[in-house]
Each structure stands twice: as structure tokens, then as C-alpha cells.
Design a protein that fits this description.
Number of strands of chain A: 6
Strand order of the largest sheet of chain A: 3-2-1-4-5-6
Oligomer: homooctamer
Largest interface: A-G, 35 and 39 residues
Strand content of chain A: 5-15%
Radius of gyration of chain A: 17 Å
CATH superfamily of the largest domain in chain A: Isochorismatase-like
Helix content of chain A: 40-55%
Structural class of chain A: alpha/beta
Shape of chain A: globular
CATH class of the largest domain in chain A: Alpha Beta
Number of domains of chain A: 2
Distance between the termini of chain A: 55 Å
Order of helices and strands of chain A: EHHEHEHEHEHEHHH
């Protein structure tokens, strides 16, 4: 606590996005967000990866079994992303291909989201921290069985040094300045924040009125 | 309570849909649903109106002022629907054009959703009941300031004889039998119920596996 | 349930407002609303009484004791209202002066708010119903010890035929049509609904922009 | 709903109190109130029975088994009350001794509290209603497994015509007028409503200051 | 409300149990109960049907599709029950085989539980009421998307005259008197109410101590 | 985090108890606990101070004004405790008499509870930490305006090194071993933990059965 | 954790207040506080800035667009404050004018509040920490989309060393001693804490009684 | 925070499981989980101990008194585990036999669960940390009086360096790779995660379809 604090902030040139186990079966286990909110948060996170051109890695666990396939929207958003279908490792970081894919990005900031929070997110987050990466977890695009389970996972990750963020904070920290692209960011928010869209609807109605 | 109960159930040939004041400003006042859930419920309700070919009536209150314009998705879904921009009546039923539009549908079952629940929904619901209509309120496509306000509105409407339903119950009661169109209803659910979509994703992955 | 439903709706010419025991000590017992929300709801209800020129009656219980005096804002809003400091009757309707004051208004619709809900509101509400009045309770300007207590009180009142409303629904049902006075109603909402004020701020900024 | 409403209100000369199965084992099943709140509500209800001299009947189910004995405070408050240790009837009203004890009171208003709400309270409440009694349930001195279970029980009882009340509403409706005994009622509230006691502490400190 | 109330209570000789669409896919949509609680409630309801020898009818909707098969525990508990795999009717009462199976039981009291509450439970409940049956819904063995959806469904069913109960209330109302079988009922509770089991564990430890 | 952890645990010979501003007016501001729970927690904390013979210091702020007097139960429990009626210092540690009283105890472990949490508790807690004391806050005997306010206060205190505890944890850590006085501790728990009392009631009923 | 703790406490001579993006559009996005509570908290924070004569800086983001203008009450409270309408920087600390304005205050303690918490508050808070400032965030005058988002933001800021406070704690820590101005602080609390006002109303009624 | 982070992760060869005071009486005090959820979590934790062959130690406090005996399922799962019936030590680590049993396992990672969280879990957790063990608490198999009490306990343990986990995270971290035993882990999850079981039911129905 006594060391001078250094604000390790997300930088679009330094960051990679890791989407872990957003599979149709596993997502049906999530109950700490309503299904509609969770879906929106995951798609918004993916849209950020796409919009900011972040190197993105997809990984799944046992797609052929009850866990189900990766949700199709993620496949469609990142058709060329490395896709690691893990043969059994629960912690994605235990999978050599996955770690190699991460290293190949050459980025030192890792943004992680996944299902379920205390396993598929927390485990690789802690492993990556140990390797010296700066780790950011997108809390609202990561889901689990209930609020108690989530809180325990957050405590463990915070204790280790993970930075917990919402997808909106991630987007804003990456974008830095509206002037970099007003329309693009506005579109992103309009698509995924209904009340922001409402503000825009009211505004442009008036503006054109 | 002692009279024999008659199950007045929704019938796609007897029902009309009334969407009241889903305007960009007013919707930003809604806090008894998360914005994402509410948006989905409203769009799902509209999708049902479209899918079941229900005569649909749109109405707004002071579009040119702070209340803001009707959300554009509803305009796009029902380009040819009667559209009553009320000049000042708070209760839509106090507006002759609105009532005439309702009567012109020739339907006796009215499905109502709107913002805010205790005013824009409850007032015309009670007026229509008095006129002898069967009234169904889509509870989750109707929003208001907070849960306490909603509960009071529900109590008042139930007391009067309104039937309270979710959009999903409305859809199912209108459809009656999956065999009428398996694919269409499945698509509707897939679009608006994320976990139902997940079930389908898992199922068809396996089926094609 | 089988009788034709009659929509008994608030009419500004037929309604009187009864404010029961909003005293500084008793209000500190209220925990089913946050203190800030409750204060705003009570003042908004009073502002409606004033704005719509409703005959208003104030009553208190044991002002000189621990219950404390009527909150000063209500006295100031209604300096000429009948003010019944009850010498001991818990149910205001058991007090002859109070009933006489109600009768003197000549109104048949009684709007009641007070502290605490299950006693100071519910008791006179049930008594007035029995006397043939139409009774409307402003649910969010009536407070009590906790949510469980409130729900029991609401159930009992609904069962008897009381109409439960928020102050906003009351205001809208009384006003009927914005054209009766756009500015006045807008001011009322701006004063007591922060997000409505925000809509207006955005709107007029743009309009004058 | 169309019949003239009659306010059947509690009258200390017409009412009897029935305390059903407040046993040490069964109370440990209650989770819709915190244990401290529930204990206070039960003791406050008992204190009302004592204070208003209501004929009171105690009954238990299988005291010698896991359900445990009646909590000692109730025995101490009502040392001479009829005490029906039911040999097996779940619905106390199915026990002839219990019904006889009720009839022996000669009262037509029955106030019921017990554990658990949907069984030990709801069953005799519905039976007594059928026999023509006016039935009042003390909702906050009746506990059950969780809130969902409670709500279902309340719905069923309200539907049948039971009047749901808090112990505080019961006390106030029985007392009618503070002048009947200011000090006695004040003491009752001071003992069981901590914030009312605080009001009194502040008041008398000042008064004697 | 003015008619004399008749307590229509469950009677083991008059009641049949209808379990509607407890399928592995549909259950994964339920979010108004935690998955563990819901599973326990459904199995407890089934155990009651078995224990009280209630004629039981199983029905499913599209078992071969995403809805998934009936959960195996129910099949195992009722191997000889009529099993109606509906080819498409959403409301089970629209299926002739189902209604015939109900009629074949010769019972006039129908206990219904299912997934989801506002459709698979509410629709046949309302249809059966209209046919003159007494209808009891096991609220905690019936699940849906969220609490708001549940509340709307409960309101609609209560309004129609359905009696809402928990599985525990159902069990107790059917059993009537512990003396009918102390051990059997105790075992049922021990299996499905963990804290009741704890009471028994403590009691028998002491008894044998 | 890398230093070896030292478990600074409460020791009855090293600890003093500081009760800050439990005044009748201030307590009525507390809404993050129900009034009944909060009262019980404060009295249980005081009972521990008494039972473990902890040097105890009472302090108040402006007793003669709206804040009201110290609640009488605390005065009665600690008739001989130093009693610092602060003339104006908000942080009790800014009051020389208070600090002197603390120093006079010769203890290095300070247990603090008070109203409101983020001021009357947090301020002296942080001041004492700075002076090198080990500080323990009794979280459930410290109350404030709402849960959000409480959480911010807890975060700030935890960050500084305060140990957050419930009164029950405090009691157990001080007692160390039931054999030090089974009956005394049992009585303490029986008085303040209703369900523990129930366990004892069931146990001794059986034991004497 | 092992370093001696230093209580960095707010000092009115060392502190500046930064109000970030309290704009009419952005505030309508806030859902982790009720609108009424949030408005009161923001105005109370501003009133503290005014009352304690803190150098105050106002900043906004895109006032001319959907975000809307600064709420007028803030402009009115601080007519002469530096007002930085940022042309695009999301993190106010990225704006040179803003940082210069902060430096010009010559203060080392920065109190920050704004909308939304995880961006407009957290970003400059982390930047200022890095620059060596002591940073205090007014948690209840900072709002965001929902509770989950807020918690993540709080975790991130606490981890970095931000001190989280309510506006009431800020006011008390700045004031230090009631004797500095009893009336002024009392007025501040009376205006923004309804139950404190009630205490004062009761007190002065009695005092003058 | 500035030291390089080391991910101390659970390793099945390094870990022992300590189950503290899961006794029938004490468990009835738990109200921060529903009884059904808590039972499932405890049994799942025990099943993990068994499945991963972790050296397991059982301990109880005053089994012969009101606390009641260890729940029988734990005895049955670990018939040969060291079983320390503590004669009075509240902190199990104060009991020499218990510490010796822990040491005898030769493990350096201790997984602890128990009742109640802030005492029976937190005390030995802090003691073991001080002795240099890595400590993991199974948060959802540890219960207490209410959520506030739990949160305080979690804060204290996190502050000290305890790693907070759910039973599911524990299982996954121990298992590392599904390929170690797909069927075994699948069975464990199927038994204790109802929705995972549902996924498997749907999957295998289809697979065999």
C-alpha cells in the first residue's frame, strides 16, 4: 500500500481479449445475471474486441458434450481468431496452445471474460498474473451460478491484483477520447445501452425537428 | 367468486394490440426493469403483434416535447398501424381517435402495454374494461418508476378484472399449438429468450453432429 | 367479479385529500421507503392537493408527545385547511370533528395518505368505504415499519375495495389532459421527478441551442 | 365487490387469540423473518393478548418429539389459558378440544398466529371462516420457510376472506383510543418497537431537561 | 365475498396430481428459484404423489426437441402413470388424451405443478377451473423465468379462483393427522426439509443418548 | 501480502470496549438494520463488555440536542464507566478526555461500535489505528443510513487494517473455551440469539423428559 | 499491510472538489440509486463544497450532444468555478485544462464525484492517485448503470488506494467539530437528511413548547 | 501488492480438508443460505473430499449438548477420518489433537468449511495462516446467521490472505483436467448441480435418440 501507485490502464495497442467457454450449455448455468443482460454484456464485450481490433482468442471446453458449442455470435464476430477447443484442461492457461496463442499476440494486457467466473475466468486470470501480465476481468460478461459464488471469485481475484471492470469501463478506457471516432463509439453504445440509445433518439429527433 | 368461472383466453382472431407511449424520453424513467430486459420485452411484444397479425395501434403523448419520439423499432415493425399522436389526453381512451381506432379493429380482446404502468397502461385498461372489453396487460412490456409503484398499479388492475400476463404467456396463449408453425414460434423465442436460444443451439449442434 | 365493472376514477371536482399523522416522530418510524424518497412522495402529494385545489384536511395524533408535530412543510402548504389534532382516537374516522370536516367538503372521493400505513391510513380508509365513499390510497406517500407490514396492509385494503395508487397516478388521473395546463403540471413533475426534470433540461437546452 | 362493504373491525370484547405451534423446534424452521424480529413479533402479539385480556388458547403439535416444547415465554404469559397439546391433528380445527375451547370463549372474532404460516395458521383460519367466524391473521407473528411460501399462503387466505394484519395494527384496532390507557399502550410499544422507545426517550429527556 | 365461504380442502381420496413439462431443457429456463431448491420442491411434490397414492399424470411437450426429456426421477417415481407426450398443444388441457386421463381418475381436485408457471401451469389450471374442478397449484414446484413473471401468473390464477399452495401445505392438508402414519410423513419431511431432518437428528441423538 | 501474517486476535486481558454515540435520536437514523435487530446487537455487545469485564468507555455527542440521550440500557449496564459527553468533536479521538480514558485502560486492543458507522465508528477507528492500536469494529452493533453507506465505510476501514467482526465473533474470540464458563456464555447466547435459545429449550426439555 | 498506517484524513484547507459529468442525459442512465436519492446526494455534496469553501471544478463531456447540459443546480451553486467542457477526453485527467485547474487549487486532497462511477469517477481518481494526490470518492454522489457495475468500480478503486466515503462522512470529516458552526452544519443536515430534520423538528417543538 | 504475485493453487496432493462443526443444531442457525442450498453445498464439499482422496478431519463442539451431533451424512462419508470432539475450544486450532491431526496429514494446503463462518471457520483459518499454511475457505459450505455477518467474516479473512472459493471452484482446481476422469467428475457435478444434470440428460437423450 505504501509503494507509489501506478495506474496500469488499458491501452488498445497493448491489450488482447480472451473469451473463455461462452458455450450454449454452460451459459444456461449462469444465474447471477438475467439471461438477457448477460447476453448483451457478452455481445458488447465481443463488439469492443472487434471495434478496437484487439487480438482475440476463443477457447472452449468439450464442445461436443453437454457443455455445448460456442455461441454462434462469437464465432461470427471473430471468424479468424485463434480457436482453442481444449481437450480437457479446465484452466485454459494449462493448455499450451492457448498460452502460445496469447504469447503470439505480443500483448501484455489481457482482458478476460468467460463462464463460469470462479473457474474459467479466475483460473487463467491468476495464472496470467503469475506470468507477469496485467489482467483485467470483464465482470459483467462473466457469469456464474449465483451472487455468492461471484463475490467469492471477485474477492480472490482482487486479492491477487486483477483489475475488475465492466464492459463499459473497458470500452471507455480503450477509446480514451471521443474524437478518435465519435460515430463508431456512439454506435457501439447505442447498440448495447438501451437508455443511451434513447438519449440519442431524443436528441436527434430534436436536432432534426 | 361463486359464479362459475369462465376462462376468457386470448384468441388470435379476437385480439388487438395497443402500444402506449413507448417513447424515448418516457422509457428512460423506467426503473422497475433493467433497461436491457425492458427493451427486449417490448420488442418481443411487438414481434408477437407482428407474428400473429394482430391489429395494432400505436399512440404517443407529446412526441415533440421532453417525452421524446416513439422508439424507432416500433415504427418500423408496424409501418401501417394507426398512429395516434395524442394532443394532450393522458388516458388514451379519452382520445376519440384512439377509441375509434380500437373499435375499428372489431376485436373484443385488448392487449395493452406501455409506459408508465400506472398511468398509460392502467387508465386505458380500466376504461376499456368499463366498456366491456376483455383486457390483458403485458406486465413485462410495461414499465414504471420502481417496484412499489408497479405493485400498486397491478393491484388496482387486478381488482378491476384485468388479466396480467407476461409477453411469453401472451405468445403461448395466442399460438395454442406448436404445430401451427413450429419454426416461426421457435424463431420468435430464439430471438427474445437467450436461454431458449441456447437450448436450440445445443440441440441442433448435436442433431447435426 | 361478474358485475359489469365501473371505473370509479378520480375527478378533481369530486375529490378531497386527507393527510393523516405525517408527524416528525412518526415519520422516523418509516422504513419501507428511504427517508428521501418518502419525503419527496409526501411533498409531491401535498403539492398535488394544492395544485388541484382539493379540499384538504390535516390531522395529527398527540402532537405534544413523542409523535412530534406535523412536519412544517404541510402546515405551510395548507395554512387554511381544517386541522384536527385528535385527542386520542387512533382511527381518525372515530373523531367526530374529522368526519364532519370530511362531510363538509361535500366530496365523495377521498384520497388518503399517512403514517403508518396499516393504522393511520387503513383504518380511516376502511371506515370511509363502509360509509359509501370511494377511497383512494396514495401508497407511496404512506409509510410503515417494513415491507411485510406494508404488504399486509395493502392486501387488507385491496380486499375491501380501496384503490391503491402512486402519487403520480393520482396527479395524472386528476389532470386528465395536459392541455388543461401544460406548464403547471410540467413544473409539478419537474419538482418531484428528478429524471423528468432531466428530460426537460435536455430538451430545453436543445430547443434553445 | 358490488355489495356494500362492511368494515369488520377488531373489538376487544369480541375477539379471542389463538397461538398455534410456536414450539422451539418448529420456530427454528422459520426463515421469512430474521429470528430476532420474529421473536419480538410473537412476544408482542402475546403481550397484546395479555394487555387486552383476550381469551387466549395455546395449542401445540407433538411437543415431546422433534417439534419441541412451546416456547416458555408463552406459557408464562398465559399460565391459565386452555392448552391443547394435539395428539396428531395438523389442522388445530380438526381437534375437538381446540374447537370447544374456541367456542367456549363465546367470541366471534378470531386472531390467529402460528408456525408455519401455510399450515398451522392457514388451515384453522380457513376452517374457522367456513364456520362463520371473522378471522384475522397476525402476519408478522406467523412464520414459514421462505418468502415464496409465505406469499402463497397469504394469497390463499386473502382469497378466502381472512384479514391480514401486523401485530401493531391489531393492537391499535383493539385499543381504539389512546385515552383508554395512554401509559399502558405506550409501555407496550416501548417494549416492542425500538424506535418508538427512542422517540419516548428523547421526548422525556427533553421534558425533564 | 358475501357468499358464505366454503373451505375446499385437499382430500387424498378426491385428488389427482398433474405434473406438466418438467423437462430437462425447460427446467434450465427457470430462474425464480435456485436450481437446488427447485429440484427439491419438484421431487418432494412427486414424493407426495407417491406417498399419498394420488393418481398422477405426466405430460411433456416436444420431448425430442430442445425442451428435452422428462427428468428421469419423475419417470422412475411413476412408472405406471399415464404419460402424455403432447404432439404440439401448449395448454395440456387442449390435448384430448390428457383430459381423458384426468377424467379417468374420477377425481375432482386437481393438483398441478409444472414449467413454466404462466403457461404450462396456468393454462391447464384455468381450463380445469372452467370445467368445474377444484384446482390447487403447487407454487414452489412450478418455475419460470423470473419473479415478475411469476407474480403476474399468480395474480391471474388467484383472480380465477385457483388455490396457491406450497408442496408442504399440500402434504399437510392431504395427511390431516400425524397418527395416520407418523413414520412415513416424518421420512418424507426428513428427505426434503433439511432443517426438519436436523431437528430429528438432534432429537433422536438425545433420545438414544 | 508477502509478510508473514500475524493473527492479532482478541484477548480479554488486552481489550477495551468503546461505545460511541448510541443515542436515541441518532439511532432513529439507522436503516441498514431493522430496528429490532440493531437493538439486540447493541445490547448483546454491551452484555459482552459486561460479561468479559472489559474496560468500557461511553461517549456521546450533544446529548441535550436533537441527537438525544444515550439509550438508558447502556447507562445501566455500565454505571461506572467513563462517560465522555463530547462538547463538539465529531471524531471522538479528537477529544482529549476520550483519548485519555482509552489510554487509562492500558489496553492495546480496541473494540468499537457506534452510530453512524462511517463517522462515529470509522473516524476514531482510523485515528486509533494510526496510534498503533489494534482495532476491531463490531459491524452489527454499528449502524448507518443505508447499505451503500455501510459498504463504503467497511471498505475504507478494511483498507486501513481494521478487523471487521460481528458481536458473536467478538464474544467467541474473547471466550476462547467453553470450559471457562459454560453456563455464563450459554446464558449470553440464549438472551441474544433466539434460535440458540430454541436449541437449548428443545435440548433441556428432552434432557428432563 | 505491515507499514504503520497513516490516517490521511480530509482537511478543509487541503481539499478540492471535482464534479465530473453530472449532466442531465448521463444522470438518466444511473440506476444504482433511486433518482430521488441520487439527486439529493449530488446536491448535498455540492452544498458541502459551497459550505466548506472548497475550490471546486466542474467538468462536462459533450454538453451539446445527447449527454445533455450540466444540471442547472450545480452551475448555480458554483457560478465562478472553473468549468471545463471537455472536447472529447473521457478521462478528465487527460484534459490539460482540467489538470491545470486542479493544480491551480494548490490542494493535495481531491474529492471526486461523478457519473458514471466506473469511468468518469474511477479514471481521474486513478490518474490523480498516480500523480501523488490523496483521492476521496463520494460514493453516493457517483452513480452508474447497476449495482454490479458499481461494485466492480469500487473494488478497482479501493485496490488502488482510493478512500471511499459517503457525502455525510465527507462533511463530518471536513467539519471536525460542531463548535466550528453548529447552526450551519445543522442547516446542511436538515436540508439533506430528512430524518435529521425530523429530529430537529421534534426537538425544537419541545424546546419551545 | 508490488511483489510478484504467486498463484498458490489447490493441488490434490498437497491439500487436506477440515470440516468444522457441521452439527444438526448449529446448522439450524444458518440463514445466509437456504437450508436446501446449504445442505447441497456441504454434501458436495464432502463428496469432493472423498472423490479426490483428500485427508479429511472432522471436528465438533459439544456434540452432547444443544449443538447436536455431526450430521450423519458426513460421518458416513468419512468413516475413518480423524474425529475430534472438542471438549470446549471454540477455535479448533486451540485444540492440540486437532492441530496434530492436521500436521499428521503432512499437507500444506488446508481447505476449511464449517458453521458458523465467522467463528468456526474464520478462527482456525486465521490460526493456520499464521502457522504458514495456505488456507482456502469453501464459502458456500460455510454458513452463518445472516448476510451481514458473512460479509464481515469474508472481509476479515480476505484481509489476512485466505483464499475464498466456492465448492465448485475447489473441485475444478483440484481436478485440473477432465481427462483425469471424465465420468467421475461428471457424476459429481450431476449429483450436486441440478442444471448440469439437466444438460447431461438432454445431451444423452439426444445422443441415444
Amino acid at each position: 500500500m505504501s509503494d507509489p501507485f501506478q495506474y496500469r490502464r488499458l491501452n488498445r495497442d497493448d491489450a488482447a481479449l480472451l473469451l473463455v467457454d461462452h458455450q450454449s450449455g454452460l451459459i444456461s448455468l449462469v444465474q447471477d445475471f438475467s439471461p438477457g443482460e448477460f447476453k448483451n454484456n457478452v455481445l458488447a464485450t465481443a463488439a469492443c474486441g472487434d471495434y478496437f481490433n484487439l487480438p482475440t482468442i476463443l477457447t472452449t471446453s468439450f464442445e461436443d458434450g453437454p457443455n455445448g458449442p460456442l455461441v454462434p455470435e462469437l464465432k461470427e464476430t471473430f471468424p479468424n481468431a485463434p480457436y482453442i477447443a481444449r481437450p480437457g484442461n479446465i484452466n485454459a492457461w494449462d493448455n499450451e496452445d492457448f498460452v502460445n496463442a496469447v504469447k503470439a499476440t505480443g500483448k501484455k494486457q489481457l482482458i478476460i471474460a468467460g463462464v463460469v467466473t470462479e473457474v474459467c475466468v479466475a483460473f487463467p486470470a491468476l495464472s496470467a498474473l503469475e506470468e507477469g501480465y496485467d489482467v483485467f476481468v470483464v465482470t459483467d460478461a462473466s457469469g456464474t451460478f449465483n451472487e455468492v459464488t461471484r463475490e467469492a471469485a471477485w474477492h480472490r481475484m482482487q486479492q491477487a491484483g486483477v483489475q475488475l471492470m465492466s464492459w463499459f469501463a473497458m470500452a471507455c478506457e480503450l477509446h480514451r477520447d471521443w474524437r478518435n471516432d465519435i460515430e463508431g463509439l456512439g454506435q457501439l453504445f447505442s447498440n448495447h445501452i438501451p437508455n443511451y440509445r434513447n438519449l440519442m433518439t431524443s436528441y436527434f429527433a430534436k436536432a432534426s425537428g
